[in-house]
Write a structure and sequence with these properties.
The mean pLDDT is 97. Helix 1 runs parallel beside helix 6, helix 3 packs across helix 6 and helix 4 crosses helix 7. The relative contact order is 0.14. 42% of the residues lie in helices and 14% in strands. It contains seven helices and eight strands, in the order H-E-E-E-E-H-E-H-H-E-H-E-E-H-H. It has 230 residues and is an alpha+beta fold. It has an eight-stranded mixed β-sheet. Its EC number is 5.1.3.4. Keywords: Metal-binding, Zinc. It is an enzyme of class 5 (isomerase).
Length: 230
Amino acid sequence: MVSLADYSPEVRNEVKLAREQVATLHAQLTRWNLVVWTAGNVSQRLRSADLMVIKPSGVRYEHLTPGSMVVTDLDGNVVDGTEAPSSDTLSHAYIYRHMPEVYGVVHTHSTYATAWAATGRDIPCVLTMMGDEFGGPVPVGPFELIGSEAIGKGVVDTLKDHPGCPAVLMRNHGPFTVGADAEAAVKAAAMTEEVAHTVWAAEQIGTPKPIDPADIAKLNDRYLHVYGQH
């Protein structure tokens, strides 16, 4: 069985940094009210080896430390760690194997996004911030049971039809988000909950007005290439 000691110093150093980052980012999930108790997870894929760092299963957020993060390969086999990895590990691993541009994955059960998932409805693109962040609606993926790579496959298959979108609402389950690193995936999770809440509120007032697809494309292009510091 391969262990972390079998990897180079470069890989072991990246694992150390990733453990610190992933532990810190889990605190962001509680800060933005995206999880309760032990639900949800963050993972980060390494750039120096086919490994990822992920939350241990069923451990309360206030007890998480860099040392409690689990290292697995991209088939979900544990390489280092004293705890069992998240029950979503195989799905995270599937996403990384099939989306090579992705280096961060997040799963939450945030209230409003999960409510949309329970209805089996996309979140329609009726906000400029949705055009910015998602480039269109937030799509719903298929219903799949927890514990295998089936959820990961559902995420990948859904995003193939929504290029550039970092979020999927897995039906009757909750949101999964992806990013260029774990921090980007956490941001996408927070934004998913924000738009889920806002569009829900808009529907209580009346009928939200859709944004023209040409304008959505312009919003997304500006956000990706002009907005922020470059």
